[in-house]
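[job 0412] stage=fold_complex status=start
inputs:
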Amino acid sequence: MRARASSPRAAMIPGFVFAAAMACAGSAPLTAQEENALGRDVYDRWCASCHGYEGLGDGYAAEYMLPRPRDFTQALYQIRTTPSGQLPTDDDIMRVINEGMPGTTMPGWEEELSLEERLALVDYLKSLSRFFATGEAPEPMTFSSPTRATEEALADGREVYELIECNRCHGADGRGDGTSSPTLVDDTGMPIYSVDLTENWYFNGGGTVEDIYRRLRTGLDGTPMPSFTDLIDAGVITDEQLWNLSHYVRSFAPEDPPGITEVIRAGLVEDAPLPQGVDDPMWESAEAFYIPMGGQIIQSPRWFVPQVAGLWVRALHDGGELAVHVSWSDHSESPDTAWADFQARVLSAVGPDEGDMEPGPRPDGLYVQFPMEIPEGMDKPYFLLGDPLEPVYLWHWESTAGAAHEADARGLGTTAPQGDASQSLASEAAFSAGRWAVMFRRALETEDPGDLQFRVGEPVPVGFAAWDGDNGESGSRGSISSWHYIFLQEPTPATVVVAPLIATLLTAGLGVLLVARAQRRVREGAEGADEGNA
Amino acid sequence: MNTKPWKHPLGQAAIVVVLAYLVFEWGIWLLPPLFGVASAPVPATVVLQYMGTVVVGVLIWVSDSEERWKQFKAPIHRVMVDPRQKVLRTALMVTIPLLVAFMTFDRVRPTVSAPAALRSVHPAPPGQIDFRGETMVLNGLENPLRHEGDFNEHYEEGKRVYVQNCMPCHGDALDGQGHFASAFNPAPLSFQDPGTIVQLTESFVFWRIAKGGPGLPREATPWDSAMPAWEDSLTAEEIWQVIIYLYEQTGWEPRTWEEEGAEGEEH
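[job 0412] stage=fold_complex status=done
writing structure:
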């Protein structure tokens, strides 16, 4: 059934080669590209749609992504083991083919393509650029072995972070909000974000300490990220300090990438008041749930390059009120005039020209979406802000509007705030070191028939939408999530303690009885035998 | 006394029970994929049921002969009565009740899970649909572009439509692993999966692309699907072209109406 047909373009190659051979009257040898029919077939079939048939990085999808696909003719490779400014080794190219570039649209191909296909592809990619034509194999750098991540190492790494000015782009807390951040462009003039170091699962070249160290040694060619090998050579920092820095950078991100949770648990707070503000230390000990976000590409105007990749959600309730805390990384407190040019560059880089593409001051924003009431069966409103028949109930926050307010919507673009008399939502927001935190608080039950009434112990559908204004996001151009659930924890029922206790007593009692009975029988048997002997 | 454990009935019984558990819990799930056969974990309740059957079977076997039954009981009895086994006896009498306590706790502790969503993955398609104001009869409908125009051009155009519209969710490799995929539940379909487009006629695929999530029947939970209704932005030709791309790129053949009909008669 599964006949892997070769691509139509590949079918044309023999004809093309034949024609080329005819044109040269059979005298010219085949070029490297023509010889490598397998590499060309694989490239045309899987890579050309983004990178373009000539390798110029101008495929059909190029304008639908940021960063743009690599232009192979320039031979600029970010992820290398060779010094800055040098060509990558074959293994370097193979690594990116295998593992992809996390944080970009480049996936890994190890599962999809055979080793033979991938080897041919490496050769083919090199044949797309004249820079590889000399055939000289680039020398990989020798890297020292990792040091241990001791307290001292991390403290020193922190000093190096400021000494060599990582914070200028990556920000004091690593969230990519440094003062130089809005000026960054890559070598092709495209806007480029300094990476958020708290999300190491999105690092282009991998998120381990070793990966980070190697990127610091080699730099990311074609991007503003430099190599720091010259600082070691000049004696400004030592190699060990670069390892310390790598450990420090790694420490911004959690130990493991967050898993996706379908249900957000709102813990029950029984013996203390609910958190009073967005910075209340109580939030730090509350369980955090990660909600991945995707671009709104369902209804026009669509948005292919959203900046809010995920939200962290915490929730607590006390039986009377529910408090929800949402936080996410953001390069700026939009609208920030420092980012005006950056926004213009983003908007002109994105191909699908949908909606209001004029640069301008746009706020950051957040929706928390619920159905109008807890559904009885499976039915929910349409996840994208409901539809005319089944509206949704919203908590709407905007960075320029002060307090959040309640609203409802009957589909994308139909959001209408509730009347002033119906507002029953309290909120507080804070922007600090590249991170927004917004807290909402509302009574579980309200008098307003237009509000969702929360009930303890029942899962309530909840969804999210977010906007980064300085990235040009507004209206339907933002990021969205599917429906998740929020579950308000019930008081612990007595059975949780009582049932195991009873089970233990019963089992232990039964065991004692069995052993006692067996031992008694043995004694009686022995006595019986004694009597018999007597 | 010092017979090897696998020659003693108690040892044999224990080996059978443990092996059976390993097969039910892991073997059925993990072994067939080694031979390229799809498999899935066995539900816990089914494992429990199977284990019950195995234990009953083992008990019937050991109690079948008087001699074997005595042998089987002897070590157990020894642990219960022998003064030299006091340490082991005490340890067992503590650990077994604790184990039971833990298992009970695990059963009664409150857990939070999303309500089970029963969802029809391949809902029955309608006989006909309305596409941009025109009635389109799906029954017996073939992809017209397979006999019309230049196939390579259709493929190429389908590729453009795919990467500009479908790729962010369904992935460059058509494996459902696009860069936005993790945001959406249900997850975007993998067209590489042998359970998706290869089971469907091209007209079914056309219907799903044209009408998307909002056009799903109720049993397929239309409110959850992030699949757009592409009739709003793609022409019929573009949809047929992207369908050609899906099959051509994955190497699958679409289900034909002859196959569909044959199956219908069987049922």
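[job 0412] summary: The first helix of chain A runs from residue 8 to 23.
[job 0412] exit 0
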